[in-house]
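Journal club prep — side note

Before the paper discussion, L.F. wants everyone to see what a predicted structure for a comparable chain looks like in token form. Sequence:
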Amino acid sequence: MLEKVTNTFSDIVRKISGKSTITEKNIEEAVEEIKMALLDADVNLRVVRRFVNATIEEAKGEKVLRSVNPGQQFIKIVNDRMVALLGDTRQDLHLKGPDTQSVILFLGLQGSGKTTSAAKLAARLLKQGRKPMLVACDLVRPAAVEQLSVLGEKIGVPVYKEDTKDAVRVAKNAVQSAKKGGYDTVIVDTAGRLQIDEGMMKEIADIKKAVDPVETLLVADAMTGQNAVDIAKTFDEKVGLSGVILTKFDSDARGGAALSLKSITGKPILFIGVGEKIEDFEPFYPERIASRILGMGDIVSLVEKAQETIDIEEAEKLQKKMATENFTLQDMLDQLERVNKMGSIQSMLEMIPGFAGQINEADIDTSGIKSQKAIIQSMTQKERHNYLIIGPSRRKRIAKGSGTSVAEVNKLIKQFEKTRQTMRKVSKNKGMAAKMMQGFGGMPGF
């Protein structure tokens, strides 16, 4: 998402940052490009006007034109305006203490990803030490209750459900059941519709009155663009919202919803869905998203993703293995799996400064990583832990089992040997990091 607007902003940043002096003409030209980029991204016209006027007013100030590095100063102004546009600072859920129950009400149109998002949030809260319960109050969409039950079982969170069509009664009973069971967070998944109607709004309003939620969250599809903003506005007027969850943030949507929501509705984006997996659910940080849009990357989020998938004790064990040349093909497979858990290669590259907007998914060849995994997975445990026993007949069997060729198996083993030796040297000499990168660089997918 935001790829096109990121490309334009990255180009503007490169042009401006290279100037030792900057004139009013430079500012006007840059702002005009920014305006067109925002309009092209389907950002609300009123929001674009505010953004452009505020940027021009601040950029043409005497302080900027007399600064030592006006180019950098202009970029800072654009960055600050972008952060303000997205919501200034990160907004978190306003949950009560663990001894007091907090109810979170989910609402939205059908197909927005509401049920999946409810499960994703429950999984996140569970990791944070909360004790959540999911409530199936979407009694309209066929199989909605079953979907939530399957997701709940997958993440280890109970799902409250009843065989009835009275969603308000289900919500009331669920809250009481959660209190008895000691569940401190109740997440209520309500029914969506293909479009907003009075019947849906009344049911949601009645549920809200019955359960008194601390958060009323709209789940909106980023791909609907400006329509998502209109939907949020209507829901807020009819029911009252406290925040928004934006799904399909990893799609090729133009980004108008993300860039317009806060300004138009006054409601913060709390979380974004960045994939189909349960763990593909991230807090929304305005300053980090602004940094990505301007092509400056987001190293903090990248590090956090790595920390979520890497166990400190396991990392220390791996370091010792590297130092003693005990790094095995099984260890290599584990590392490939961890990289996979962090998300798509493209999403990670987008967080690295200089890469944002420069890499298309079509340009990334992930087949190398897939074939590597397939080759190692076709080996026995004995072979994975001692690659030296993999002779010609074993290599032929592995190639057949992985759907690759003997030549590819040979190549992987040679690259593994080289990487293993390089790792040992690097673990003893930190100054050899560049050589380590060369060792990995020879492998497909790295």
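L.F.'s comment for the group: The chain is about 55% helix and 10% strand. Keep this in mind when we get to the figures.
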